[in-house]
Specification:
The structure holds 2 protein chains of 2 kinds. Chain A is mainly alpha-helical. Chain A contains 13 helices and no strands. Chain B is mainly α. Helices cover 74% and strands 0% of the residues of chain B. The chains are: A mainly alpha, B mainly alpha.
């Protein structure tokens, strides 16, 4: 696009502005640079690009290609022989009730966790940046820094610790949650097993995952909102927009790209969820209500020794993830994501 | 969608309104200018009239919700902290929110360190963290330099290949990656974790790439005219200028490696190779339901990150800011 200095361009059509710049002008002249294959260039290139790429190809790309093949074999993982079985593993997955339950749970996580996390994170981010007093300049609530620090807190706690801590909070007899609930008069909650009841196990687990993500995304959104010129908020206020309206009509469209990225990252993390589920309910929860694909895959491969079948699960997981990312992009496109509001500036 | 006309007369009196009006207008059909002004006045008056009523309630609601959020974030951690100092009987009988009888009861920490293998865990984590961070920074900055400053065929292909890893979950390729690691004889060595942390890190490459674009090309071109070779330019110009991005990557990546559970869990099952997260999880076996000892272990794991976080908050925020808004 920037290569406007096409020598053969018919002079009459090109507007006079497009005359080529003098050779030494600092401009978008990427094409101008001469290509010399010098030793310097080649050797640096080899170290700086080929080395990382080799590691990447060995540890990321090649396993990906191998995974596609393994998923169509009956390989056990411990012997070298494997027979090609085509799509049998995938057909078997469809009839595998345990796997279908895990897939359903993973899908549920992919929908609910990002949605709730993003709504909460935008809420907190709005409060600490533009939710402050309605008089005077646009600013956050009092003590905004304090809330920001506290909300980021859980991000620094390892996921495995988060899982263990919350398992303790949910403990039926000595846990904090039931202690608080009985304390406020809900005696029926005396020993309610939050993680041991199939009706609440998934909700309780989701809460923990959301709890651990909100802070990080709050900070991301705070950063994005701070990138929006303050006059926009001031003008919105002059126009009579309330806080809620401001959040919906100003904040969200302006940080739209960040929201989309956050949605994808959160979805991928939520579809996985291995560590949290492993820490809170290693067996998959009551009636497999918190069992997820990554746990099924781990058990199938490394406990049962069915590498081929497990890899097929992994391929399905990848498809689910790609579908999810595609859906996010599609929704973004349909709701007018390309219509960049900043373009009006 | 019809784009609202930004040159309406009332939009020109304040520069900033030009940014906003289209945003406010996209939700409905655009009324003619006179009506807009009237509607605006009505909303403004209504807002003014409501203000004395909504403000105290609004403030109460706002701060209550924030305080509940703070309580949710902090109280579970506080109970763990207090549980770490309680004796076995005390933990079984006392309220989770009650402070321990003796704040100097370090028994649980001693058990966690000696029998729980936390000391070994910290040593392993430190080694893995240091080597992988240095590697990530060198690889990431060099790749970013090469991708951004060299024109070569297949540049888009390289970027696309890197993008693949962000979209395909690591679990998918777990079995195959395991085979590769095993085949190279890295299984059950620290190198397994180090190479996987180092070689597959796309997020840092992206952070470096974004930052790289803000460094003017004229700088390296000038250096080249002065006779500097690529390595010199990388080492003397690009690398020092990337320092803020490096700080961000050190923090984000450092926390991620410290917190990582799955990779050490799968590739380094040997007891001697436990890192902090896997050592802590191993407590679940021998110490079964001994939450006070697990709590002590959890406190030991959290304290270093907490200190790092409190010391480096400013860099974390500014790092995320530059990453998010560029």
């Amino acid at each position: 696009m920037s290569g406007t200095s096409h020598p053969a361009a018919p002079g009459g059509v090109v507007p006079p502005v497009a005359t080529p710049r003098p050779g030494n002008a600092p401009g978008p002249g990427r094409r101008r640079r001469r290509r010399r294959i010098s030793f310097d260039r080649a050797s640096f290139f080899a170290v700086a690009l080929l080395l990382p790429l080799t590691v990447y190809v060995i540890f990321v790309i090649s396993p990906f290609a191998q995974a596609l093949y393994f998923s169509m074999t009956d390989w056990s993982g411990f012997t070298a022989d494997m027979a090609f079985v085509g799509l049998d593993n995938f057909a078997r997955l469809l009839g595998d009730d345990k796997f279908m339950r895990a897939a359903l749970n993973s899908a549920l996580l992919a929908v609910i966790v990002p949605t709730v996390t993003i709504v909460l994170a935008i809420g907190v981010a709005t409060m600490v940046t533009v939710g402050g007093s309605t008089t005077g300049g646009v600013r956050g609530v009092r003590g905004a820094g304090f809330y920001r620090v506290i909300s980021f807190f859980p991000y620094c706690v390892p996921a495995i610790v988060i899982g263990l801590v919350w398992a303790q909070v949910y403990d039926p007899s000595r846990g904090l949650l039931n202690g608080v609930l009985t304390g406020i008069g809900l005696d029926g909650m005396t020993d309610f097993p939050w993680l041991g009841d199939s009706r609440t196990a998934m909700g309780a687990s989701m809460f923990v995952i959301i709890w651990s993500f909100v802070g990080f995304y709050t900070v991301l959104f705070v950063a994005a909102i701070k990138g929006v010129p303050g006059e926009i908020y001031e003008a919105a206020r002059l126009d009579g927009a309330g806080r809620f309206r401001t959040a919906i009509s100003i904040t969200v469209p302006l940080i739209r790209d960040n929201v989309r990225t956050a949605w994808i990252y959160l979805g991928i993390a939520a579809i996985d969820s291995f560590v949290y589920m492993q820490a809170m309910n290693p067996g998959g929860g009551p009636g497999y209500s918190t069992f997820v694909i990554s746990q099924d895959l781990y058990q199938t491969a490394f406990s049962k020794g069915q590498f081929g079948y497990a890899t097929a699960m992994g391929v399905v997981l990848a498809l689910v993830t790609l579908l999810f990312a595609g859906a996010v992009f599609l929704v973004d496109r349909i709701t007018g994501g390309r219509d960049d509001v900043r373009g009006h500036a | 969608m019809t784009r609202p006309d930004t040159t309406r007369p009332e939009a020109t009196d304040r520069e900033a309104i030009r940014y906003v009006s289209p945003l406010l207008a996209v939700t409905g059909p655009l009324p003619e200018p006179g009506r807009v002004e009237a509607a605006r006045r009505r909303v403004r008056n209504a807002w003014r009239a409501l203000r004395p009523l909504t403000t105290p309630l609004g403030i109460a609601l706002k701060y209550t919700s924030l305080l509940i959020a703070v309580a949710c974030a902090v109280i579970p951690l506080i109970t763990v902290f207090m549980a770490a100092f309680k004796t076995r009987e005390e933990f079984a009988t006392s309220d989770p929110l009650a402070p321990p009888g003796d704040w100097l009861n370090l028994e649980n920490f001693v058990v966690a360190f000696t029998r729980g293998g936390m000391l070994q865990g910290f040593a392993n984590t430190t080694i893995i963290l240091a080597v992988s961070l240095v590697g990530t920074i060198l690889i990431g900055t060099m790749t970013a330099y090469a991708v951004d400053r060299f024109d070569f065929r297949g540049r888009r292909l390289v970027l696309g290949a890197f993008l693949l890893a962000t979209l395909v979950p690591a679990v998918t390729t777990q079995v195959a990656t395991f085979q590769v690691v095993n085949g190279l004889g890295l299984f059950n060595t620290r190198w397994a974790a180090i190479i996987l942390f180092m070689g597959t890190d796309i997020v840092s490459i992206y952070i470096f790439l974004q930052f790289m674009r803000s460094i003017p090309r004229s700088l390296d071109e000038a250096a080249m005219l002065d006779g500097a070779n690529r390595l010199t330019i990388y080492a003397r110009i690009v690398f020092p200028l990337l320092r803020p991005a490096i700080a961000t990557v050190v923090i984000i990546k450092g926390i991620a490696i410290y917190n990582e559970y799955y990779i050490p869990f799968l590739y380094m099952p040997s007891r001697d190779l436990g890192v902090v997260s896997t050592s802590l999880f191993r407590f679940m076996g021998p110490f079964g339901a001994q939450w006070e000892i697990i709590s002590a272990g959890a406190v030991l794991v959290i304290v270093p990150t907490l200190i790092a976080f409190l010391l480096l908050q400013r860099q974390i925020y500014s790092g995320l800011t530059s990453g998010a808004t560029k």
